[in-house]
Amino acid sequence: MHISSVRADDAIVPAPGGSAEAARLAWEALQPEDWPLPLSAFPADAALVGGAVRDALLQRLGPEPDLDLVVDGDAIALCKQLSKRHGGSAVVLDSERSIARLVIQGWSVDLARQEGGSLLSDLQRRDYTVNAMALPLADRGALVDPHGGLQDLAKRQLAAISEANLLDDPLRLLRGVRLASELGFALNRASEAWIRAHRERLQDVAGERVLAELEKLASAPDGHHGLQLGLDWGLLSPWQGSDTSAALPQLTPQKAEAMGLCAGDAGAVLALARLTAVLDPRGLKALRSSRKLQQRVERLRRWQTRLDPGQPAEAAEALPEAERLQLHLELEQDLPCLLLGWPLEAARRWLESWRDAQNPLFHPKPAIDGLSLQQHLGLKASPRLGALLQFLMLERAFGRLEGKTEVLEQASQWLSANPED
């Protein structure tokens, strides 16, 4: 492998100066001594790029951040060598562009061959300025920043490098909205204009990739704002439901916290509730989502439509018993997502009941299994047995059954009142 060093030119911030201090702080946040393999394991021309550099400068790294490195040479061969020497699994991500991933000790280290033959050329091809910075591993005092990413970080601004770069991969149009929401940044005017002008190009992207970006956006604390921009700018038009409102409900972390959801639960609940608000099952199918996600969204949308939006709790509590039981059966896992759209006091009250794992209505369970009924009452498997099990579950859910003896007595009475045809 050819090994070259990164030249110290105008794009590289040399040792004394503000950017050198930024590089120092970034490496301090990255804590390379805790990485699963030493810096010396990489070639001298390797540089850390992308989100890890950005997030280190913003002091928002997680405990095991994903690391993206570029090298001047065959990244796949390097990844396999590192796997042999240090352990972990080498996974080829793109053989044509020489991109591979080393999964080691819970970390993910992506290695890619420089595009364009140099680090500066590689950074020139990236999407946004804050993602087009690099930290050369061989020079801990240098920050490669040819497009003013550091200044944009200070301004809390997201700026595309060029219109052409966005169109090289139209997913970058949606990614800009997602990153702005994730980071709490504002898109600059030029980037916003390019995103809006080329929104239809997003349809050229594989559905799975679009959905992955939307899921990240829906999970961001300010994802509500980002999804609203996606609706307002027409980015989501090909996949949004015909019944999607022009204005999203207030699905915010503040509402989740006020409702009583803990931080650990709020993220997943908000993400599903937000996706449900902007995508219908047909849209999800077009984006090649899992069948399970389509079903969850379909059920949430159906119950949102079924209940009076002005007084949803009162409408739910007034449902016939069988329908109320069906609500809890279908939404046992996802009831908090439904409650996010409710008035606060009603949402709190229902969430408290849902938190009680022993609540027989909010967590319906069969009162008895079918085999026990067959053995004790001499029944055979049939639709009649299924109807009896449903009746007993309903009685248990509404607190009219306790204990096996009582269940069997009620079952006998039901059989007498519902003889075989």
Features:
single chain, 421 residues, alpha+beta, Beta Polymerase, domain 2, Hydrophobic Seed Protein, six-stranded mixed β-sheet, two-stranded antiparallel sheet, disordered N terminus
Structure overview:
This protein has helices at 18-30, 51-57, 75-86, 119-124, 149-155, 163-168, 171-183, 189-197, 207-219, 223-232, 253-259, 263-278, 281-286, 291-306, 312-317, 321-330, 335-339, 344-355, 370-377, 383-397, 403-417; strands at 12-13, 47-49, 67-71, 89-94, 99-104, 107-113, 134-136, 143-144, 157-158, 186-187. By secondary structure, it is an alpha+beta fold. It has four domains: 12-155, Beta Polymerase, domain 2 (2-Layer Sandwich), CATH 3.30.460.10; 162-238, Hydrophobic Seed Protein (Orthogonal Bundle); 245-308 and 328-357, no CATH class; 370-417, no CATH class. A six-stranded mixed sheet has the order 4-5-6-3-2-7. A two-stranded antiparallel sheet has the order 1-8. A two-stranded parallel ribbon has the order 9-10. It is elongated. Residues 1-17 have low confidence and may be disordered.
Quick synopsis:
With 421 residues, the protein is of the alpha+beta class. It has helices at residues 18-30, 51-57, 75-86, 119-124, 149-155, 163-168, 171-183, 189-197, 207-219, 223-232, 253-259, 263-278, 281-286, 291-306, 312-317, 321-330, 335-339, 344-355, 370-377, 383-397, 403-417; strands at residues 12-13, 47-49, 67-71, 89-94, 99-104, 107-113, 134-136, 143-144, 157-158, 186-187. The longest helix has 16 residues, at 263-278.
